[in-house]
TrEMBL record:
It comes from the Bacteria. This is Sigma-70 family RNA polymerase sigma factor. One of its GO terms (biological process) is DNA-templated transcription initiation. Residues 216-310 form the SnoaL-like domain. Residues 22-86 form the RNA polymerase sigma-70 region domain. Pfam families: Sigma70_r2, Sigma70_r4_2, SnoaL_2. One of its GO terms (molecular function) is DNA binding. Coiled coil: none annotated. Keywords: Sigma factor, Transcription, Transcription regulation. InterPro entries: NTF2-like_dom_sf, RNA_pol_sigma-70-like, RNA_pol_sigma-70_dom, RNA_pol_sigma-G_actinobac, RNA_pol_sigma70_r2, RNA_pol_sigma70_r4_t2, RNA_pol_sigma_r2, RNA_pol_sigma_r3/r4-like. Interacts transiently with the RNA polymerase catalytic core formed by RpoA, RpoB, RpoC and RpoZ (2 alpha, 1 beta, 1 beta' and 1 omega subunit) to form the RNA polymerase holoenzyme that can initiate transcription. It comes from Actinomadura rudentiformis.
Length: 327
């Protein structure tokens, strides 16, 4: 606490380096907060930059009546709310339009601030507790985007970050009664859209050894274009989506046709990674010269039977490129 107090006093005197050190312990969690609010890594970075600039300019107004963390979350949440006013809500493919037949037109990429983006696991500190990792899973973040911005903020601040109703009311300049009402409505909407068990719970139940075997089997099957093995790892009602392409496939049979006739027209090399706290593979596509170029990020969602219910194949180079470092 003494060190934080010294940095705070130095920051108030205009020491930018001291301010940077003061907020550094909170950057990772604030970034994840912005991502939950906005569904986009780029938007999260922009909102966090705006928030920290606001905190720097307003440091003299921080009186210490709340913790520094609470104060930073108040500024960051309001920056996200202002940012949200400029953007449409982010969605997943199934919210954009119906599934297509396996021989259907994939369509042109839908660009702009449309899709929920993948979140790099290295943005999460090693100390991040399981509940916070659950809160960046694709299904949860996508469900949040269906909430009005104010309800979204209330749910995250109360349920994920465990701030009190009074703290949230102060942060959002509203009443405790309004916070409790918004929380009740938000819970109902989100509960209707997320699986009963999180991916974190599913992976913990699977165990590290079985997880390695699962990933190894998927890598081997994909690299040898073994469609039958891949389909054996899918639930019958699995989905295969490809943002920013609008097309997506519903059901194991249609996915099988798509894999056989389109995906494996070229060879692939796969590298295990993590995204949104979930199992994922970086996908390198072979070209006619024998080179392999990064082409996709496949994020897997598993059910309680350890079968894949969704493969979200992110194709946007700006999204996929964030995962290439160190691969």
């Amino acid at each position: 606490m003494g060190d934080e107090t010294e940095l705070l006093e130095a920051g108030r005197r205009g020491d930018e380096e001291a301010f940077g050190r003061l907020v550094a312990p909170y950057r990772s969690e604030l970034h994840a907060h912005c991502y939950r609010m906005l569904g986009s890594v780029q938007d999260a970075e922009d909102a966090l930059q705006e928030a920290l600039l606001g905190a720097w300019r307003g440091l003299a107004t921080f009186e210490g009546r709340s913790s520094l963390r609470t104060w930073l979350y108040r500024i960051t949440t309001n920056a996200c709310l202002r940012f949200q006013d400029k953007r449409p809500r982010r969605i997943l493919s199934a919210d954009y339009g119906p599934a297509i037949p396996p021989d259907g037109d994939l369509g042109e990429p839908v660009t702009g601030p449309v899709w929920v983006e993948a979140y790099p696991n290295d943005e999460l500190s090693s100390e991040t507790r399981y509940e916070l990792r659950e809160s960046v899973e694709l299904a949860f973040v996508a469900a949040l985007q269906h909430l009005p911005a104010n309800q979204r903020a209330v749910l995250i601040l109360r349920e994920v970050l465990v701030f009190s109703a009074g703290e949230v009311a102060e942060s959002l300049d509203t009443s405790v009664a309004s916070v409790n009402s918004a929380l009740q409505r938000a819970r109902k909407t989100v509960d209707e859209r997320v699986p009963a068990r999180s991916q974190q719970a599913t992976l913990r139940a699977l165990g590290e050894e079985a997880e390695r075997e699962f990933v190894g089997a998927m890598v081997a099957a994909w690299e040898r274009a073994d469609v039958d093995t891949i389909l054996g790892m899918l639930a019958r009602d699995a989905r295969f989506t490809m943002p920013p392409l609008p097309a997506w496939f519903d059901g194991r049979d249609d996915i099988g046709v798509f894999l056989r006739e389109r995906v494996f027209a070229t060879p692939w090399r796969m590298v295990p990674t993590r995204a949104n706290g979930q199992l994922a593979l970086l996908c390198y596509q072979g070209d006619k010269d024998g080179r392999f170029n990064l082409g996709a990020l496949n994020v897997f969602t598993l059910n309680e039977d350890n079968l894949i219910t969704e493969i979200t194949a992110f194709l946007d180079p700006a999204v996929v490129g964030r995962f290439a470092h160190g691969s």
